[in-house]
């Protein structure tokens, strides 16, 4: 039996329909990290051997960039990134609900800004090219609006479910408490 991707303490904030997406984001992030690490190692070894492969720097930077944006998307769903909880964990009731929604609304707006400005950057990248591959920079910039869309989606998911089910983790009997109502 495999372990679930979502902890039971976080299930009340998440739709199970997105669990597969989260799992694939985690896998892709691991792949990006592995390729980034391996390509960096090969780049260092070939440079020290006096036979530098310039295209390895392009591979390394591409997987680093996509790893960052995929990781930010996955971390947003997991409440591991872009979310300040120290303040809200000490609160209860309506103040907690307000700050939980406020925190996630800020992250939602950041995601939407990433979509808007990332799209503009992506279009601009059609006129710039990477060396030595001569691929348009757009292939690098595509990760920005995609990440923004996922960050916005996962923030919205948590706002809706938090308002429905409460933002605190369920207590042992499975009933979600502190809905702020």
Structure write-up:
This protein is mainly α and 181 residues long. It has one domain. The protein has helices at 19-48, 55-77, 93-124, 138-141, 143-165. Helix 1 (19-48) runs antiparallel to helix 2. The chain is elongated and about 65 Å long.
Q: What's the short version?
A:
The protein contains 5 helices and no strands. The chain has helices at 19-48, 55-77, 93-124, 138-141, 143-165.
Describe the secondary structure blueprint for this structure.
Elements (H helix, E strand, L loop, with lengths): L18 H30 L6 H23 L15 H32 L13 H4 L1 H23 L16
What fraction strand?
Answer: under 5%
Evaluate the radius of gyration: 20 Å
Helical run tally: 5
How many strands, which pairing sense, and closed or not: the largest β-sheet? none
H/E element order: HHHHH
Q: Give the number of domains.
A: 1
Distance between the termini: 38 Å
Total number of beta strands: 0
Shape: elongated
Query: Poorly predicted ranges (pLDDT <50, ≥5 residues)?
Result: 173-181
Give the rounded overall mean pLDDT.
Answer: 86
Helix % is: 55-70%
Give the tags.
181 residues, mainly alpha, 5 helices, elongated
């Amino acid at each position: 039996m495999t372990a679930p991707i979502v902890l039971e303490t976080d299930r009340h904030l998440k739709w199970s329909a997105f669990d597969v997406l989260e799992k694939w984001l985690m896998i892709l992030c691991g792949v990006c990290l592995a390729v980034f690490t391996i390509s960096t190692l090969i780049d260092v070894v070939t440079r020290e051997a006096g036979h530098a492969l310039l295209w390895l720097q392009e591979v390394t930077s591409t997987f680093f960039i996509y790893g960052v944006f995929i990781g930010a998307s996955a971390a947003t769903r997991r409440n591991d990134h872009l979310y300040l909880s120290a303040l809200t964990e000490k609160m209860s009731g309506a103040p907690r609900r307000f700050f939980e929604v406020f925190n996630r609304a800020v992250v939602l707006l950041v995601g939407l800004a990433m979509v808007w400005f990332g799209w503009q950057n992506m279009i601009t990248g059609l006129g710039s090219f990477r060396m030595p591959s001569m691929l348009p920079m757009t292939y690098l910039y595509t990760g920005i609006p995609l990440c923004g869309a996922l960050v916005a989606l996962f923030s919205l998911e948590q706002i809706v479910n938090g308002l429905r089910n409460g933002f605190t983790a369920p207590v042992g009997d499975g009933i979600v408490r502190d809905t702020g109502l």
